[in-house]
Amino acid sequence: MRYKESRESVNYLEATFRQIFPQDYPVREHARARLESLTMPHWALGDLMDMAVALAGMTRSLTPPVARKKIVVMVGDHGVTVEGVSKYPSAVTAQMVYNFVNGGAAINALARQAGAEVVVADIGTEADLDDLARAGRIITKKIGPGTANIAREPAMTRTHAVLAVEAGIEIAEQLGLGTDVFGTGDMGIGNTTPSTAIAAVLTGQEVATLAGRGTGLDDAQLAHKVRIIEQAIQVNRPDPKDAMDVLAKVGGFEIGAIAGLIIGAAVQRKPVVVDGFISTAGALIAYGLEPFVRDYIICSHCSAEPGHRFMHERLRLKPLLDLNMRLGEGTGAALAMNLVEAAAAVLTEVATFEDAGISKG
Hints:
Layout: H1 10-17, H2 25-36, H3 47-59, E1 69-76, H4 91-101, H5 106-114, E2 116-124, H6 130-134, E3 139-140, H7 158-176, E4 181-187, H8 192-203, H9 207-210, H10 219-236, H11 243-250, H12 253-267, E5 272-274, H13 277-289, E6 297-299, H14 308-315, H15 331-349, H16 353-356
Parallel strand pairs: 1-2, 1-4, 2-3, 4-5, 5-6
Helix pairs in contact: 2-3, 3-15, 5-15, 7-11, 7-12, 8-10, 8-11, 8-13, 11-13, 12-13, 13-14
């Protein structure tokens, strides 16, 4: 197995960041004016109308395109699983990749319902997935065979962290011509552990407040997971003012690629629907690297992981749904894509009072 070779990418990232701008304010105001004149009481569809304004501002259009939807499931393994932080072995990561490409996972079912395509990208699995790559069934941007054990040492080098983010940007570029709306997904046994570490560093909350049961840990296992995360932060001392350092010290390859996908979507001025706890850790990294990406993020849902709401507070974004979910894979993003299409339909299809000849109260 050959892994992606390191190269200096900082200049590339800086050039990418310079292509990201806030939403278009005049287009937002035009969208707001139209929505205020629709045949319904003022702002009667609430958050759906707020999202319609945001979609117009993101896409610079009063008819925002939302039909072509892709959910990108970033995959990576984690050395910290040897510490017993998950109920499943690392081998399940690769096994689930085969389930994804064969269409049998929850994300496949929910994506089909939403009319979205599922794209799987190997960013750092321990397994050899070259057979799937050769068959064109997955994208391969493998940085390495999983991260190191963050309880003992940094997850990766800073160069590899940069490459992981770059991989996500490249995937966004590769898929961009055929995509109107991106969605983030993840697969990586043990990845709630680095995600919680990222959340603790970047929100300032205590690990015990943020950590959840992940794959279904009991009380003793959860207490052990908390200790491992605290140890990882103490051993590695990530700098909360340097998002790339946080990613390198306590993150994951797939988390970095999720951050890159969000950055790549923002460059293209396209909405990106962020899934659950792991994806939101990626969003925190992306936001730390370039704050303007926040203007293109739609938070799909608040998961059962207790730390998720603190991550949303850090981003200053409100999730659309709260369904007590804790699966990942992009399942929340798939569900929320229905609401994204609904918001665009409200903006473009509902008649105004003037159009319908109805007296406005």
